[in-house]
């Protein structure tokens, strides 16, 4: 099948891809989400792939990612075995969820790397030198800030409460 998208829709998909990349997401993910977000009805994988001018394999991989994020929901239609997809139109909830998950994941990565850094023999040797107390204080400041950010994240509404909060 040939892509017969209106030029305005194609331009919007390109814009969505660029916007996704500006937030360090994959261009195709942005295009897929935008295509579904602007669609008035659920679409099949084949319709999505054709509309976004990508392979069904590429579309499928990125749709699974979007599903995992809660940005896309899978459904079906009676009389067909195909899966159909719709976008989560609650952009506020979706944005807050991605922000929470992204910050929490990055904090955990930093925490693990900082812990491993502090367990090295070279770290312990350096702490015994004249700058050791200065470094120790600075690292405590970093860890304190991370704990404050984690505590702040805990104040965000949970996913189940987010719907009521943002409507």
Radius of gyration: 22 Å
How many beta-strand elements? 3
Strand order in the sheet with the most strands? 1-3-2
Helix and strand composition category: mainly alpha
Q: How is the CATH topology of the largest domain named? A: Arc Repressor Mutant, subunit A
Order of helices and strands: HHEHHEEHHHH
Alpha carbon gap, first and last residue? 39 Å
CATH class (first level) name of the largest domain: Mainly Alpha
Quick one: CATH superfamily of the largest domain?
Winged helix-like DNA-binding domain superfamily/Winged helix DNA-binding domain
The profile of the biggest β sheet is:
3 strands, antiparallel
Helix percentage: 55-70%
Enumerate the spans where pLDDT stays under 50 for 5 or more consecutive residues.
none
How many helices? 8
Number of domains: 2
Q: What order do the helices and strands come in, and which of them pair?
A:
Elements: H1 7-22, H2 27-37, E1 43-44, H3 45-51, H4 56-69, E2 72-76, E3 83-87, H5 91-118, H6 121-127, H7 132-155, H8 159-166
Antiparallel strand pairs: 1-3, 2-3
Walkthrough of the structure:
This protein has eight helices and three strands. The protein is mainly alpha-helical and 167 residues long. The chain has two domains: 81 residues, Winged helix-like DNA-binding domain superfamily/Winged helix DNA-binding domain (Arc Repressor Mutant, subunit A), CATH 1.10.10.10; 76 residues. The chain has a three-stranded antiparallel beta sheet. A hairpin with a 6-residue loop joins strand 2 and strand 3. Helix 1 crosses helix 2, helix 2 packs across helix 4 and helix 3 crosses helix 4. It is elongated, with a radius of gyration of 22 Å. The model has no long low-confidence stretch (mean pLDDT 90).
């Amino acid at each position: 099948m040939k892509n017969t998208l209106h030029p305005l829709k194609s331009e919007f998909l390109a814009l969505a891809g660029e916007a996704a990349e500006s937030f360090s997401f994959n261009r195709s993910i942005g295009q897929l989400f935008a295509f579904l977000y602007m669609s008035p009805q659920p679409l099949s994988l084949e319709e999505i792939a054709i509309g976004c001018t990508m392979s069904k394999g590429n579309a499928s991989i990125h749709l699974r990612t979007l599903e995992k994020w809660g940005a896309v929901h899978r459904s079906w239609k009676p009389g067909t075995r195909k899966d159909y997809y719709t976008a989560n139109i609650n952009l506020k909830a979706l944005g807050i969820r991605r922000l929470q998950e992204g910050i929490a994941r990055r904090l955990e990565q930093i925490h693990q790397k900082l812990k491993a850094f502090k367990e090295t023999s070279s770290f312990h040797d350096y702490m015994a030198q004249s700058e050791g107390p200065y470094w120790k204080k600075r690292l405590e400041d970093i860890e304190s800030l991370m704990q404050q950010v984690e505590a702040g994240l805990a104040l965000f509404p949970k996913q189940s409460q987010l719907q009521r909060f943002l409507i």
